[in-house]
Design goal:
It contains 4 helices and 29 strands. With 466 residues, it is mainly beta. The longest helix has 9 residues, at 216-224.
Length: 466
């Protein structure tokens, strides 16, 4: 464990984050000096592997369970994705990252400044590229490549490699849409890109406005929305997650809504989670955007108020809870009209049966004998189920990753030491922050043999209790 030398006096505040991320939140106090690195670790109860993330130093890091950096790439990702060797013909250690950006634009939470994305190998060699410069990269290989729409990738928040070798890319598109008061929408689009850069399939969110479940009153608010803080286009949905449904028990039982090729997305601004039918582009399953008030902590219970969700996905086969939906429920402020969690802002991780739409497991700080507000990230963040039943959580706003057992015991915790200058959370001023968009668990056998690792216990300091 190390101690951060950089100073910051508050985490993102209401006005600051609204300006930079188009999000609102209550102010949250934080110490000006706090530990970084691994702060606690129980090897016997934790799932042991690596963790991949991009820090605010604009680099991508792979760490072991003791926080040692075992590999670094000189690129960041939003997010970086270390690929399963089954998707790379057995090659280990390949990562999807951003290859070129316009400085500062990506911090606004959109892809307009993302010029080029690609796949690099363990040593950083670019194996595939899409966006600005891709044609030049392929020219020497005599590949008939097509460029990204508009000439740049504009990827944001997510992307996934498919079993057929294509890549799903979540991107932005600025355009005028009839029926909206704003002159232009910052729309969300999904592209399926072939290895030679051509589009095999695409989907545009605004073409499905009437399928998202908005009430007539909410739809009026959606269409009347205006750009915030000098932006040229209104970020009406802010889709921040895109995952492939994958093989699951529901589809095997005959429920076509959960076809493995279908795509699941969630909207930070509108508080919904939906599944897109890959064949038709139609919404075939949805959760939200309207929910009843939070009804307590007992499970199972009907899904209650979700606010600004992130990293929604179906838990893959072979993992505990397979087939259920796992989502980081930020509980910031969002919706049409806006809703917020009240006097004690706190985040939750929810596991939801997607057929009955009931919460079957949840995590809040109280499950770790901590006050509700000690676990809170109003924007970014992620949660992933692990093979032993634990869940890896990224409390993104604070750059904190931790593993919890099913009953909420924290068995591993790490705070990112990688700080950088950012305008996010600074009310327009430059500040130092260590926020992390997403943390990906990486099995030991996904990286080249001989990659170092350490599993030394890190005891938690004793806490005096009355």
């Amino acid at each position: 464990m190390t101690v951060a030398r950089r100073r910051f006096t508050t985490l993102p505040t209401l006005g600051a984050l609204a300006a930079a991320m188009m999000v609102a939140m209550p102010a949250v106090a934080a110490p000006s000096v706090h530990p970084t690195g691994v702060t606690r670790y129980d090897p016997e109860r934790a799932w042991n592997g690596y963790v991949l993330f991009s820090g605010q130093d604009k680099k991508t890091h792979l760490i072991d369970m003791n926080g040692n950096e075992v590999r670094q790439w000189p690129y960041e990702g939003f997010p970086p994705v270390l690929l399963d060797p089954a998707l790379t013909k057995g090659k280990k250690g390949n990562v999807l990252v951003q290859l070129a950006q316009l400085p500062g634009v990506q911090q606004a939470g959109n892809g307009l400044g993302n010029k080029s994305i690609g796949e690099v190998d363990w040593n950083g060699k670019v194996l595939w590229q899409w966006g600005e410069g891709a044609q030049d990269a392929y020219a020497s290989a005599s590949v008939d490549s097509a460029g990204a729409p508009g000439g740049t990738a504009k990827q944001h928040h997510d992307w996934r490699r498919l079993a057929n070798g294509n890549t799903l890319v979540l991107a932005n598109k600025v355009h005028a849409v009839p029926g909206f008061a704003a002159k232009a929408l910052l729309d969300d689009v999904i592209y399926e890109v072939t290895p030679d850069g051509k589009l095999a399939w695409q989907w545009t969110a605004s073409e499905h406005l009437d399928e998202f479940g908005f009430s007539p009153e909410a739809l009026k608010l959606v269409k009347a929305a205006q750009p915030k803080h000098g932006a040229q286009a209104v970020d009406w949905l802010h889709i921040n997650n895109m995952s492939v449904v994958g093989p699951n028990k529901w589809h095997k039982a005959g429920d076509s809504r959960f076809a493995p090729d279908n795509i699941l997305v969630d909207s930070r601004e509108a508080n919904f989670i939906v599944i897109i039918d890959k064949k038709t582009g139609k919404i075939v399953w949805s959760l939200g955007p309207d929910y009843p008030a939070i009804a307590g902590t007992a499970v199972p219970r009907a899904v209650d108020q979700i606010i600004g969700p992130h990293d929604a996905h179906i838990i893959p086969e072979g993992l505990p809870g397979a087939g259920n939906l796992l989502v980081f429920d930020n509980q910031g402020e969002a919706g049409y009209p806006k809703v917020s969690p009240g006097i004690f802002p706190h985040s939750r991780v929810l596991e939801i049966d997607p057929v009955s739409k009931r919460i079957v497991w949840q995590y809040t700080a109280t499950d770790s004998r901590q006050p509700q507000w000690s676990f809170y990230s109003a924007f970014i963040s992620s949660a992933r189920r692990l093979p032993n039943g634990n869940t890896l959580i990224d409390e993104g706003m604070t750059g904190r990753f931790f593993q919890v057992t099913p009953r909420g015991d924290i068995v591993w915790e790490y705070v990112s030491p990688y700080y950088g200058v950012s305008a996010v959370g600074g009310s327009g001023k430059q500040i130092d922050t260590n926020w992390v968009y997403r943390a990906q668990p990486v099995p030991y056998d996904w990286v080249p043999e001989g990659t170092p690792r350490s599993e030394q216990p890190v005891p938690m300091p004793a806490i005096a209790r009355q």
